[in-house]
Amino acid sequence: MTDVSTAPTTVARGRNLHRFANPGRFLRISGVILPYLAAMAIIVTLTGMIWGLFFSPSDWQQHDAVRIMYVHVPAAWLASSGYASLALCSLFSLVWRHPLADLAAVEIGPVGAAFTALCLATGSLWGKPMWGAWWVWDARMTSVLVLFFLYLGHIALVRAFDDQQRGYRAGAILALVGVVNLPIIKYSVDWWNTLHQPASITLTGAPTMAPSMLWPLLLGGIGGMLGFGALVTARLRAAVMERRIRALTLAQVRREAE
Amino acid sequence: MTHLPYIIGSYGLTFIVVGWLAVDTWLRSRRARITLAKIDPRGMR
User: Is B17 on the interface with A (CB under 8 A)?
Assistant: First the structure.
């Protein structure tokens, strides 16, 4: 039997979700937030990078090569969390038909793919001096490569159909199926014997890293998240405007044809 | 410091990728804003 008491809550939640679906309202609100978001992203990221590059200590074993961590690890966090946000938008699109969720998923794709490529490239640049190899078919590296292909697949799939809605639907399904790769990436270093080191920062335990290294890394991660948010918001604003331009142009062509 | 080329490569690549994303996004937004303002001045509201 359906619990009637939950019905108003569900309706209210749906209404709240769609409050920001109005493109005009989204453009207004995001236009106010975006400059602050971008400024904070630049300040926090640069602080973390400069701290990591010039003021944090070098590692007793890896020496100065450890400084690659301050760009590699935030890129890895952004690659995974970007994909999680892509999947969340896909869920909003499939379940609640949120009109901006499809556009957001389309815009997250290239940004996430760029950060995943950056994670792989900086990992390779870190691997060469430490392991003596640019690439090994290690579980962590292979699962991140699969993540990169999932991003590319999503980018290609949403653009592969003449009917845009069908492309969005196919992309959303791929994004949700691909979520299975996220725990594989996270736990690959625990489940298999990998050349890649295990996580130094976990949600449950204390970090196995000196605070002088942890702080610049966290700043890089927070700045990266803010930057990712700023980039996606700006791209989403452009996509909303482009959609409006297409609709207005089409309406004008139809008026002239009549 | 034998690791310097790898460090410079990593940070340089990061600046190139993030810079490219930022410039591409800014140009696209600017183009869309100008076009929309021409077609429908109320479009930005």
Answer: yes
- Cβ–Cβ gap B11/A114 under 8 Å: no
> What pLDDT does residue A4 have?
42
Domain A33-200+213-249, CATH number (from 1.10.3470, 1.20.120, 1.10.287, 2.60.40): 1.20.120
Round to whole Å and give the CA distance between A38 and A42.
6
| 3-class DSSP state of A147 | helix
pTM for the predicted model, two decimal places: 0.89
Q: Which of A22, A18, A32 is nearest to A233 (CA)?
A: A32
Q: Is the pLDDT of residue A222 over 60?
A: yes
The lowest-confidence range among A127-131, A146-150, A153-157 is A127-131
Mutate to test the interface with B, among A68, A246, A255 (most CBs of B within 10 A): A68
**Distance between A219 CA and the closest CA of chain B, angstroms:** 16
Mean pLDDT for chain A overall: 89
